[in-house]
Amino acid sequence: MASLDGQKTNETSFNHVEIPIPVHPIGVEPKPNQEIEERNIDYSQRANWLRAAVLGANDGLVSVASLMMGVGAVKEHITAMLLAGFAGLIAGACSMAIGEFVSVYTQYDIEIAQMKRDRENNNIIGGVSEEAQREKLPNPFQAALASALAFSVGAVVPLLAAAFIRNHKIRLGVVVVVASLTLVLFGAVGAVLGKTPLTKSCLRVLIGGLMAMTITFGFTKLFAFAGI
Question: Is residue 16 classed exposed, middle or buried when 0-12, 13-18 and 19+ CB atoms within 10 A define those classes?
Answer without folding.
Answer: exposed
